[in-house]
Write a structure and sequence with these properties.
The chain is mainly beta. The chain contains two helices and 20 strands.
């Protein structure tokens, strides 16, 4: 099966969108860890220190200063989406931790898929076939908290803004439960996708929430039914549809499509 990702050039109609440095983790008692957080869950941080990865319980963490999390470049708003000038390139593990809060789960009575929030106002992109013929939509989001954990929230008031069945893309609008700006991911500012470059997808394959898989770009010119796709060997399964494909700069370069 060909795993496909839509070129974001096709998304314009909707729009309608390093250098590793140390994290500083302060523990109870004043101890400090300088390293790179390569993974995390609700209970622990996994920190690379030198040549080894150690597990740190969140209950022991007093503060976590995520050094290098600020974009090196300036964010630019273009209609409904953002791009970043000269974004920071990081490891896939680190970049995935940064962008996960922008990835959502989209559910209907008939199934589920994924999506990505593209601006602070809650506009999100998914596949048209994920919501095809449905008006009863729910979206699960993960809100960052001051403790470094995320808060899982299900939203039921989802507005469908635009649908294009030919491109299999849809634009949704979410309402933040606290009235705050949403965490979002920027789009790639120009089409610089290269064969062989590392990429990663985040979605909800088979209902497994916030799952990350990685691979490389196999080709940038896979033509199917008069549309051009990116092809990647990144693992994509049912439930990933509508979710983002990222480069190692944390930019969305495509929308996964089964």
């Amino acid at each position: 099966m060909i795993r496909q990702v839509r070129l974001f050039t096709s998304l314009v109609f909707l729009a309608l969108a390093g250098t590793a440095v140390a994290d500083v983790i302060t523990l109870e008692g004043g101890d400090r860890i300088d390293g790179e957080v390569v993974a995390s869950d609700d209970q622990s941080l996994f920190v690379r220190v030198g040549g080894q990865v150690i597990q740190v319980k969140r209950s022991q963490v007093v503060s976590h200063e995520a050094a290098g999390d600020e974009e090196r470049g300036q964010k630019v708003r273009s209609f409904l989406f953002h791009t970043v000038e000269d974004p920071t390139e990081l490891s896939i593990e680190r970049q995935a931790n940064r962008v996960k809060p922008s990835v959502i789960k989209v559910q209907t009575p008939k199934g589920l898929g994924s999506g990505v929030i593209i601006n602070e106002e809650g506009y999100a992109i998914t596949n048209a076939h994920v919501i095809q013929g449905e008006t009863d939509l729910r979206a699960t989001i993960w809100l960052p908290t001051e403790s470094g954990k995320t808060r899982r929230v299900t939203l039921e008031d989802i507005e469908i803004i635009a649908v294009n069945n030919h491109l299999d893309l849809a634009l949704l609008r979410l309402e933040h439960p606290d009235g705050d700006p949403f965490t979002y991911s920027p789009l790639e500012s120009y089409e610089g996708i290269l064969v062989g470059q590392p990429v990663f997808a985040i979605g909800n394959p088979l209902g497994l929430e916030q799952t990350t898989s990685d691979g490389v770009v196999s080709t940038t010119q896979r033509n199917i039914e008069a549309l051009t796709y990116i092809q990647t060997n990144t693992a994509i399964n049912p439930g990933n549809s509508g979710g983002p494909l990222f480069n190692t700069k944390g930019e969305v370069i495509g929308i996964t499509n089964m």
